[in-house]
Amino acid sequence: MLTQCTRMLDRLGAVLSKIFNLIGGIALVLLIPSFAWLVYGRYVLNSTPTWVEQVSLLLMVFITFPVAAAGVRANNHLAVTYVRDSMPPQVSAVLAIISYIGMAVFGYFMAESGLMLARFSWTKIIPIIHISDGWRFIPMIICGIGMVFFSIVHILRILCGWQKISQSTFYSDDLLDEDAN
User: Fold this and answer.
1) By three-state DSSP, how is residue 174 classified?
2) How far is CA 96 from the centre of its chain?
3) DSSP states along 85-106
4) What secondary structure does DSSP assign to 7-27, as a single string?
5) CB 21: neighbour CB atoms within 10 A?
6) What does the pLDDT look like over 147-167, one tens digit per residue?
7) What is the per-residue pLDDT across 30-66, written as a single tens digit (0 to 9) for each?
8) Which one, of 71, 95, 69, 68, lies nearest residue 82 by Cα?
9) Structure pTM?
10) Rg (Cα) of the chain, in Å, rounded?
């Protein structure tokens, strides 16, 4: 039962990860022409568009935070695994669980702080582009929630794959994939 639930959550996580990467990709695609317009306006028209700075700052958080959450799911976040990799597989798995618990706690506080910041600044308006300043913190909330969700799914995958981990000679997150031998 837990294994089926974990598989379902992992599939949901794959969809969420694609959505987070799509959000970051769209924001990146929008950032490029805005800077092109900045250069064109400054050097060709001799009239610098002032809105580009505020839009680019907003787009940067929409690039950084959702993609960082997707990185937790894909396990391509910054990690030093030398100690974990030098341990027996069961110890490595326990250390991985501890690390995911730490990421989940960090994600929770990130989401909570982002929500407080969004509430606090929602009535403020970003000059020049005339939208709520609270939009700067929405990606922070998304990232925090994503980090918590993806960390919990990783922990569940480790727990469901404990027998496979016990029979292995080393621990790797790839060991828990469905198609792993």
Assistant:
1) helix
2) 18
3) HTS-HHHHHHHHHHHHHHHHHH
4) HHHHHHHHHHHHHHHHHHHHH
5) 17
6) 999 999 999 999 998 888 888
7) 999 998 999 999 899 888 888 998 999 999 999 999 9
8) 95
9) 0.87
10) 21
